[in-house]
Specification:
eight-stranded parallel barrel, TIM Barrel, globular, alpha/beta
Length: 344
């Protein structure tokens, strides 16, 4: 397993990490992701650790805390071997203080997460969404307090826009509070919006990307192709409305390119899609999920080899879309590109 620094921090994380959203799954979204109980979760954790995957990502909102609880049970006796990443900020109840990033909410959320995980510290705490109702100074001073108390070690964000990240980093720098070192983002061959704004920001400010849904919300499994319906057992039937939309023709064009590279390399479509992400700038770790051992072992096959420059270029071309304003001039006009070259 390749290990990389998490952004500008000194923390080493594996190129592949495991998403525990399938643990204890319940409800219309998480129940369709998977429902691994403690016994199955312990087996999957063991396979991951044997392969060098020691970072496990979860969130309090995943199955109303059940994911954290099952993960905590699965790592009992092995806490020193693992890194735990969890997220908070989305609603965990209907009360006025059951959501967001206020001081009251963050302190309670961390205490609840520690209890469910059965640990006394969290390696990486990420804010699951930007809370426009709480001043960034309140958020960051609280995170600073939690770091100083030893309850969390590193901080990051997820689903923030560029200006929201920069506003937070500026406040952190001004007051000497911990800087965000991770940005958990949606990024895939059928969803490259991350590249327009957040990737250059990550390069400039030292945020490492933790990539969620690297297979395009289940669309790049190799089971969906031009002229064939979504397989009967696909979770897309129930969960497509929760995830990022993808134009059908764009999807088929990408899958055609993946199929061609798969034939050349003898690798599977998911392995190629994951390997492409691992070679992109700012990516610290790609979060893989698995409902069972077979899926996990297949995803683990995405490391230990590399696509050729030609294959990377062909996949990039097949997945390219027109950049939104104000980014498209820098990709279409040489005069703009000379001032701010696109990231390749």
């Amino acid at each position: 397993m390749d290990y990389r620094n998490l952004g500008a921090s000194g923390l080493k994380v594996p190129a592949l990490s495991f998403g525990a959203g399938t643990f204890g799954g319940s409800g219309p979204l998480f129940g369709n992701w998977g429902s691994s109980d403690t016994r199955e979760a312990r087996r999957l954790v063991g396979i991951c650790l044997d392969a060098g995957v020691n970072l496990f990502d979860t969130a309090d909102v995943y199955s109303d805390g059940a994911s954290e609880q099952v993960l905590g049970e699965a790592i009992k006796g092995r806490r020193a071997e693992v890194l735990i990443s969890t997220k908070t900020g989305l609603p965990m109840g209907d009360g006025p203080n059951d959501a967001g990033s206020s001081r009251s909410r963050l302190i309670r959320a961390v205490e609840d997460a520690l209890r469910r995980l059965g640990t006394d510290y969290i390696d990486l705490l990420q804010l699951h969404a930007f809370d426009a109702g709480t001043p960034v100074e309140e958020v960051l001073s609280t995170l600073d307090m939690l770091v100083r108390a030893g309850q969390i070690r590193y901080v990051g964000v997820s689903n923030f826009s560029g200006w929201q990240v920069m506003k937070s980093l500026a406040a952190a720098d001004k007051h000497g509070w911990p800087r965000y070192v991770a940005n958990q983002v949606y990024y895939s061959l059928v969803g490259r919006d991350y590249e327009w704004d957040l990737m250059p920001l990550g390069l400039d400010q030292g945020l490492g990307a933790l990539v969620w849904s690297p297979l395009g919300w289940g669309r790049l499994t190799g089971k969906i192709r031009r002229g064939t319906p979504i397989p009967e057992g696909s979770r897309l039937h129930e969960t497509a409305s929760f995830g990022p939309p993808v134009d059908d023709e764009h999807l088929y064009r990408v899958v055609d390119a993946l199929d061609a590279v798969a034939e050349e390399t003898g690798r599977t479509v998911p392995q190629i899609a994951l390997n492409w992400l691992l070679q992109r700038p700012t990516v610290s770790s790609v979060i893989i999920g698995a409902r069972n051992e077979e899926q996990l072992r297949q995803n683990l096959g995405a490391v230990g080899w590399a696509l050729t420059a030609d294959q990377i270029a062909r996949l990039k071309e097949a997945s390219s879309v027109t950049a939104p304003y104000p980014y498209f001039p820098y990709r279409r006009q040489e005069a703009f590109a000379r001032l701010n070259p696109p990231i390749e």
